[in-house]
Amino acid sequence: MKPVAEACLRNQQPIAEVLSDILANAKAVLELGSGTGQHGVYLAKCFRHLKWQLSDLADCIPGMKLWWQEASLDNLCEPIELDVTCDDWATRRDYDAVFTANTIHFVTLAVAEALLRGAAKTLQKGGLLCIYGPFNENGCYTGDGNRQFDQWLKAIDPEIGIKDIEWVEDVLRQCGMVLVSRRQMPANNLMLVFQH
Ligand SMILES: C[S@@+](CC[C@H](N)C(=O)[O-])C[C@H]1O[C@@H](n2cnc3c(N)ncnc32)[C@H](O)[C@@H]1O
Q1: What are the entry keywords (predicted)?
Q2: For 141-159, what is each residue's pLDDT tens digit?
């Protein structure tokens, strides 16, 4: 049976709406930490001009393949195993956009940094990095919902949790990327878009 992430069902349409102009000129998107693969399936259906590559850790691949097989879309590539902490994935400049949803706060600072640096490295000049999820601003929560969510995350693992926008911007600035768009999303989430 296909794994289902309920949150994906709630936020896939708002995500597609904001990405429709952001990815209008993109051709090939690498998604990092795709999870069940639901976002990729939905977005590949919405944006038939894009080649969409799903990826995640090995454990997620069998479930994601069920979504990929069922969708049977010619612009949705077979899911690949990709651990952002491994170096080899970031050297191929095959993509003009990278998308990731709900990953940065689910991992440690070191893993989040590897994701950001790797994404910057894999993108072509002018490439876009789209990051969806909750963020803190200047070390503060942007709402009570995010505060509770962060406490819940830290109870699972004290090393993970919501990251500061300023930290993300700083890491990506060091990689030659700048914040070009910031869109408010439902439930105190943001879509941040960085460009090379
Ligand atoms: C909360 S889930 C989000 C899944 C999906 N993007 C979504 O929005 O439903 C976080 C994802 O990050 C992935 N992840 C964690 N560490 C990773 C790593 N080192 N490399 C790649 N993905 C990783 C997990 O496997 C998981 O699928």
Answers
A1: Methyltransferase, Transferase
A2: 999 999 999 999 999 999 9
